[in-house]
């Protein structure tokens, strides 16, 4: 892992943006995207460029089960609002959490991933070390599946909903093995709330108890931190 530490989230975002732009300029075809608050500034920077992405396909990590793609809390909605409506991507894929048969949706999504191998995967992490919605204990062999969200993840994400009861209990998520098959991974983590998970990811042995620690096994993973997220290293 290549760990880069910056004074502030803004400086860290700038470094991530430079990497993404460099890859876009040198033939990146498929980009894996994440949601959450961490990559918001990165997406803002990207949508303010006039980069031609008409040859680029995007695949997102996850989506809540039960939310329509038009629901303002859905990750489909987030991606449309933050990026897709501004940029001319060849194709954009986000799991659909509102389908009748979510298991079938996982299979369909895994086929999409097979046809579109990810060149660069943008990743965030949960305060418990989750990546996508792969909670602690998820098998490293997992492919796209339905995840039960832990109480702590629902708590961490409730800030996006009016009431805690509205936070879905399940999500469709790329599995850890699907995430790991990206040629390059760019993980961003900012703030004190991520410091403990960042320490486990980098300084502890690889364990399914900290899903992000699997990045130690990836041959091309860049970890971009602000100084608060790096404070326990
Ligand atoms: C959610 C998403 C993750 C994301 C995490 C962190 O749980 N499923 O993909 O990395 O939130 O969110 P934030 O960036 O808001 O801290």
Describe the structure.
The chain has 233 residues and is α/β, with parallel strands linked by helices. It has one domain: Rossmann fold (3-Layer(aba) Sandwich). Helices cover 30% and strands 18% of the residues. The protein has seven helices and ten strands. It has helices at 9-25, 40-47, 75-84, 102-115, 151-157, 176-180, 195-203; strands at residues 2-6, 30-33, 57-60, 62-64, 91-93, 120-123, 145-148, 170-173, 184-189, 221-226. The strands form two sheets. Strands 1-10-9-6-2-3-5 form a seven-stranded parallel sheet, with helices on both faces. Strands 4-8-7 form a three-stranded antiparallel sheet, with helices on one face. Helix 2 (40-47) links the parallel strand 2 and strand 3 (57-60). Helix 1 (9-25) packs across helix 2 (40-47). The longest helix is centred in the N-terminal third of the chain and has 17 residues, at 9-25. The two termini are 14 Å apart. The model has no long low-confidence stretch (mean pLDDT 97). It binds 2-amino-2-deoxy-6-O-phosphono-alpha-D-glucopyranose.
Give me the secondary-structure topology:
Elements: E1 2-6, H1 9-25, E2 30-33, H2 40-47, E3 57-60, E4 62-64, H3 75-84, E5 91-93, H4 102-115, E6 120-123, E7 145-148, H5 151-157, E8 170-173, H6 176-180, E9 184-189, H7 195-203, E10 221-226
Parallel strand pairs: 1-10, 2-3, 2-6, 3-5, 6-9, 9-10
Antiparallel strand pairs: 4-8, 7-8
2-amino-2-deoxy-6-O-phosphono-alpha-D-glucopyranose (GLP) binds next to helix 5.
